[in-house]
């Protein structure tokens, strides 16, 4: 199979402005939301789903990109959904991509695997989301798509902070004896007494702190209010999972849903808006 880069070059060489889509631009607003390129199969299998605070401007960027010639040739129409702002657009985009699996989207695909780091008595272990709920766990760090990526992150932290691979559980060693990295001056020496175990664990906790997954701060669902220039939405969230949006609180209270596997994409989008105090948060009946 030819490399993706070669196929992209060939597509770019065949680029022609998508005249058949020119009329579609007229229907697109200069406003936040989600847009979808539909191919011959229509709504059954979308080609691409994207988001922008300026839908029309972003779609026009696609038209100017020769590397997307294949997508543009296959597209038959472009639909869109307005949102009040960027938060709602991002949430809707992730929801639509996971539900519809568009052909050209590579990120935000639904995943059944989720891993985090957990610290206990100075040692770090990789845990699966099926074994622990990151929405409620207070000592879980990071959200990773594989055990390998979680361990790679831990190694980077250990390297940056001169932590001992043996003590944190990356490698095996003999108690009281210098590890290999200590002999290379890459470990501060907690493995052989040059640093106290307490100081070592404190440095480890400090290094992990900014990766800590925040526990869900309410007992039930909440509505995050987002206001735009001409639109207002209430995004309903429970256990860091997005359940849906409504244009008023009465409709928001009718939104129901059950939480399942922790959604790291929703968490990434929502953590700062919900905890940052910049948006109105309304508690809904559980």
UniProtKB/TrEMBL annotation:
<dbReference type="GO" id="GO:0004518">
    <property type="term" value="F:nuclease activity"/>
</dbReference>
<keyword id="KW-0227">DNA damage</keyword>
<keyword id="KW-0228">DNA excision</keyword>
<keyword id="KW-0378">Hydrolase</keyword>
<feature type="domain" description="GIY-YIG">
    <location>
        <begin position="30"/>
        <end position="106"/>
    </location>
</feature>
<dbReference type="InterPro" id="IPR000305">
    <property type="entry name" value="GIY-YIG_endonuc"/>
</dbReference>
<keyword id="KW-0234">DNA repair</keyword>
<dbReference type="GO" id="GO:0016787">
    <property type="term" value="F:hydrolase activity"/>
</dbReference>
<dbReference type="GO" id="GO:0009380">
    <property type="term" value="C:excinuclease repair complex"/>
</dbReference>
<dbReference type="InterPro" id="IPR050066">
    <property type="entry name" value="UvrABC_protein_C"/>
</dbReference>
<dbReference type="InterPro" id="IPR035901">
    <property type="entry name" value="GIY-YIG_endonuc_sf"/>
</dbReference>
<dbReference type="GO" id="GO:0009432">
    <property type="term" value="P:SOS response"/>
</dbReference>
<protein>
    <recommendedName>
        <fullName>Excinuclease cho</fullName>
    </recommendedName>
</protein>
<keyword id="KW-0742">SOS response</keyword>
<dbReference type="InterPro" id="IPR047296">
    <property type="entry name" value="GIY-YIG_UvrC_Cho"/>
</dbReference>
<keyword id="KW-0267">Excision nuclease</keyword>
<dbReference type="GO" id="GO:0006289">
    <property type="term" value="P:nucleotide-excision repair"/>
</dbReference>
